[in-house]
Amino acid sequence: MKYFIYFIILISSQLSKAEMGHELMRRIVVFPFKAESVYQNEAVEAWWKIRETFTEEKRFLVASKDFLERKDVFQARSELSPADAIILGELLDAQLLVTGQIKNKILTLSVYETQRGQVVWTQDLQMHPAIPVKDQI
């Protein structure tokens, strides 16, 4: 009986480990951010800065602007459906897709994984109303 209980505990712990599998994410695509026409320059600057942040320590491979243009997907995106995330992930051989939007002085960033097309992280960053947006990016 003791061995049976030990065997059940061992199997259940192995199954729980299988459910918690983590995969190393290295290939990232950062799409240009959607923005109101007033904030278009700020959106472009934010896009470049986020790309720089990802590539700074050389831990991630970030798709270049030229690569996105060659694949004909270089356009501003704010939200992706699961199907879009999966298709873009396959087309671009990416593991994560980053989108953003600047609207009403709120910068919204979203990160999608490309196997199931689900959002893995999202954040709204409220910008200070008295400081110009370009100084906050």
Overall description:
This protein is of the alpha/beta class. Strands 1, 2, 3, 4, 5 and 6 form a six-stranded mixed beta sheet that branches. A hairpin with a 5-residue loop joins β5 and β6. The chain is globular, with a radius of gyration of 20 Å. 23% of the residues are buried. The mean pLDDT is 85.
Listing every helix as H and every strand as E from the N terminus to the C terminus, the arrangement reads HEEHEHHEEEH
SS strand fraction:
15-25%
Low-confidence runs: none
**Secondary structure tally: strands:** 6
N-end to C-end Cα span? 64 Å
Category from helices, strands and their pairing: alpha/beta
Helix content: 40-55%
Total of DSSP H or I helical runs spanning 4+ residues? 5
Look at the structure and give the mean pLDDT. Answer: 85
Cα shape: globular
Quick description:
This protein is an alpha/beta fold and 137 residues long. Helix content is 40%, strand content 23%. The termini are far apart.
Descriptive keywords:
single chain, 137 residues, alpha/beta, 6-stranded mixed beta sheet, 5 helices, 40% helix, 23% strand
What is the fold's blueprint, element by element?
Blueprint: H1 2-19, E1 27-30, E2 34-35, H2 40-55, E3 61-62, H3 65-70, H4 82-92, E4 96-103, E5 106-113, E6 119-126, H5 133-136
